[in-house]
Automatic annotation (TrEMBL):
Keywords: GTP-binding, Hydrolase, Metal-binding, Nickel, Nucleotide-binding, Zinc. This is Hydrogenase maturation factor HypB. It comes from Azotobacter beijerinckii. Signal peptide: none annotated. GO terms for molecular function: GTP binding; GTPase activity; nickel cation binding; zinc ion binding. Residues 98-259 form the CobW/HypB/UreG nucleotide-binding domain. It comes from the Bacteria. Transmembrane segments: none annotated.
């Protein structure tokens, strides 16, 4: 729905920017023409199940036609994608490897992140952009590890967008050749649609949430390159089918990689950090190849 409602307009606050509002989505809902019945989102009824997401917009908003919703979504995401492209260019210029961590609230993102930072040590520059609707509690936990963190409070908004990340990046220095984690707002719906300029989305799913989450929230798992199955130390105490969960994730996204992890027991942490190093290396090699091709093209002009 964030691609339609433009939530959080004027609500975002970034630490250190006093009373500075970021109006990312500029559209109005007032005086919207009520759509004719034929324009409304098709309601599909299956027994006692009502499906409102079967139209072209894949969503429903009272008073908005499907065509209008599609247009609003294209406008919002198009604007975000332009900011994301700018972020990506800045990341590339810094040789900065960026991961967007997404999950439900309470999945253990911050605990997993602080443990990851501890294990990564100071081999290279590290920083975190923290997204929450309110408070800087998670950013404070990150700073306690000695790593800089910028808190972005989204107010009523339920996700970070590329414009917010671009502003937060200006408050971080010395990241050349480093690693930036973006911990998104806890939400398995809206962050799926918003490119922040990251190299990869990493979906974190706690075993306390139920193995069918990938089927209930398919867009997020389709957008992610990696699923971290978190809090595996709790498995002996739960009725959680690990293999079914992985199968559901791969039904949505056949290419998704899966690592089982626990910040408490340490299970899978080495594999997770190795994945980061492998993907970072691949990103750098791709960048080198692109620069070589560009250099060859320039040499051909001599």
């Amino acid at each position: 729905m964030c691609t339609v409602c433009g939530c959080a307009e004027g609500e975002t606050r970034i630490e250190g920017e006093h009373h500075h509002h970021h109006g990312h989505h500029h559209h109005e809902h007032a005086f919207v023409r009520r759509p004719a019945p034929a324009e409304a989102a098709p309601l599909v009824v299956e027994g006692l199940n009502l499906h409102f997401g079967q139209g072209p917009a894949r969503a429903h908003a009272p008073g908005l036609s499907q065509s209008r919703m599609v247009q609003i979504e294209q406008d919002i995401l198009g604007k975000n994608d332009r900011y994301a492209a700018e972020n990506r260019a800045r990341f590339d210029a810094l040789s900065l490897f960026v991961l967007n961590l997404v999950s439900s609230p309470g999945s253990g993102k911050t605990t997993l992140l602080t443990k990851s930072i501890e294990l990564l040590g100071r081999r290279r520059p590290l920083a975190v952009i923290e997204g929450d609707q309110q408070t800087d509690h998670d950013a404070a936990r990150i700073r306690a590890t000695g790593v800089p963190a910028v808190q972005v409070n989204t107010g009523k908004g339920c996700h970070l967008d590329a414009h917010m990340v671009g502003h937060a990046l200006t408050r971080l220095d010395g990241l050349e050749g480093g690693l930036l984690f973006i911990e998104n707002v806890g939400n398995l719906v809206c962050p799926a649609a918003f490119d922040l300029g990251e190299a990869h989305k990493v979906a974190i799913l706690s075993v306390t949430e139920g193995e069918d989450k990938p089927l209930k929230y398919p867009d997020m798992f389709h957008a992610a390159d990696l699923m971290l199955l978190n809090k595996t130390d709790l498995l002996p105490h739960l009725d959680f089918d690990v293999e079914a969960c992985i199968a559901y994730a791969r039904r949505v996204n056949p290419d998704i990689e899966v690592i089982r992890v626990s910040a408490r027991s340490g299970e899978g942490m080495d594999e997770w950090l190795a994945w980061i190093e492998r993907q970072r290396g691949a990103r750098l090699r791709a960048r080198i190849d692109a620069l070589r091709a560009q250099a060859q093209a320039l040499e051909a002009l001599l």
